[in-house]
Structures are given as C-alpha cells and as structure tokens.
Amino acid sequence: MNLLPQQSLGVRQIGLECARQPAQQRDQTEGSHIFDTALRFHNPASEDGRTPSSPRPSTLDPRRRAFTLIEIMMAMAIFSMVITAIYATWTLIIKSAKIGQEAAAQVQRERVAFRTFEDALVCARSFQADLQHYSFVVENGSSPTLSFVARLPEFFPRSGRFGDFDVRRVTFSLESGSDGQQQLVLRQTPILMDTDETEQQFPFVLSRNVSKMEFELWDTRKGKWVDEWTTTNEIPSMIHLTLTYSRHNPDKPYAAPQKEIVSRVVDISSTMVPGGFQRRGQSTGGTNTSGVPPTGGKLQ
C-alpha cells in the first residue's frame, strides 16, 4: 500500500512510541492508534475519521430523543381546554345573536301593528245618511274586534290588491294560528261589496303571540273612558288600544310564558258627516248645511 509522506511519518512515530512502552500498555496503545489510523485512511478529508455533518456519538442524550407520556397527555389536555373554550364562546355568540334578532323582529312587528291601527283610525269615515254601511263596531272579551270604514292611503297593507277601491271596511281581530297561538289579523272589504273568499281565509297577519287585545273609548258625553261602544253611528274622539304579548322561552318549554303589555292612545280627528251635507241642496232646521248656495241666493 502506497502511503502519503505525512501518513508514513505518523506510522513511524506510532512504532517508536510502542517500542518505548511496556508490553501490556504497548498492546493497548497500539490497538488504539491502529484503529484511529484506519479511520483516517477511510476518510482522508477528516482528521478524526468522521464527516463534518455527522454528530459525535458522545454528544447524543438518550433521555431527550422523544416526548414522555406525561408531556403528551398534558399537551392533549391543554388543547382540549382551548377547543372547549372556543366552542363555548362561539355557542354563546350564536345564542346572543338569535335572541337579539328575535327581539328586534318582535319590536318591529309591534311597531307595524300599531302603525296600521293609527293609519286606519285617522282615515275613518262615517255618514249619517248611510249608517248601515258606515257603522263603528267595537267588541271586547274573548273575541275582540274593531271594525269601521276608512278611506285608506296607497301605502296601507294590501292596497294594491283592491286597486282604486280606497274606501274599505277594515276589521281587526284575534284568531288562532296554525301553531295554536293567538295572532292579530286584518281583513279588508271594499264598501258595498261582499267579503272576498281569499281575504276571509287568508287574512293579513299583523302580529303573532298576541294573547289579549282590549279597547277603551273616550265618551265625550260621560267624560271618561268606556269599554263598550253602543253608539255605532258615531266615531269616538280617542281610542286606547292595549295588546298583550305572550312569549315562550324555547329553553324552558314548561315555564310560564313571559307577558309584555303594550298600549297606545290614538286621537281620531274624523267625525260623522251629517245627512244635510251628504244630500245636495237639502237644508236642516231652516239653515242650508249642504255647502251649496240655493238658486238665486247666497251661501248662508
């Protein structure tokens, strides 16, 4: 075997050292140096026979080669706690959003219901010469009803269904819905016409979960509120409307429903038109009240 000059010099030095040492120590030293020399021959690029990238075997700690079972269990426990907290927070957000949306929808339905009452009452009409078609009917009790004739605006609910028939009888009542809960409904019928079958079977639902509806009317003769209106040929000056809502908690189906009472007073500016104004040229009590001057005379 051909050796390099440096390698040959190293072999000679090893031989001299072995000759100077005792026999037993010489054998151990010689074997160690021979092993080191063989490693140098195997990889001349490295002085100790190992590649630069390979770690020393003595630097590896066998106790840090993997996670222990306790560490893995602690990591899994912490991860489970984090996931549980995220899920609980997300569930709370969903429930809060649902409750908020239901509350906003309920408030909106209440507002629409009272606005519909107001729009109809301020447009009420009554004519003394035609009381059979323009009666003002109010009923309290187990089946409350409010029915009267009004000249309704175009933005009133379902006005587009009746076209140019803007003078209609409106009827507000409480009925049981498909879910068994009471609901406030509205029906409309053009004056001098029969009730439409579709309108009778499918009324307009103003509000749901209305357990009670009450009316109080201001009697100008008695100067107080009354709950019974017997003079159906007159329009009261004010009406006090009260709606009681009953809401059930879905999380507590067997609990008593929560009740909310909402009331409002509506001022009715309409009055009954006297018969003299309705019949052209007819006078009442010696005074012309028709608004049309008689022939050859002046308006009194």
Largest sheet: 6 strands, antiparallel
**Which stretches of 5+ consecutive residues score pLDDT under 50?**
282-300
Q: How many domain units?
A: 2
Instruction: Assign the structural class, choosing from mainly alpha, mainly beta, alpha/beta, alpha+beta, or little secondary structure.
Output: alpha+beta
| Gyration radius, rounded | 50 Å
- How much of the residues is beta strand, in percent? 15-25%
The span between the termini is 150 Å
* Counted beta strands: 12
Counting DSSP H or I runs of 4 or more residues, the number of helices is 5
Helix content: 25-40%
Mean pLDDT, all residues: 77
The helix-strand sequence is HHHEEEEEHEEEEEHEE
Shape field: elongated
What does it look like?
13% of the residues are buried. With 300 residues, this protein is an alpha+beta fold. Residues 282-300 have low confidence and may be disordered. It is elongated. It has 2 domains: 8-47; 103-277, no CATH class. The strands form 3 sheets. Strands 1, 2, 3, 4, 5 and 6 form a 6-stranded antiparallel beta sheet that branches. A 4-stranded antiparallel beta sheet has the order 8-7-9-10, covered by helices on one side. It has helices spanning 5-20, 23-42, 69-121, 197-201, 275-278, and strands at 124-125, 137-139, 145-151, 167-176, 182-190, 204-208, 210-219, 224-226, 238-247, 258-267, 283-284, 287-288. Helix 1 (5-20) packs antiparallel against helix 2 (23-42). The chain contains 5 helices and 12 strands.
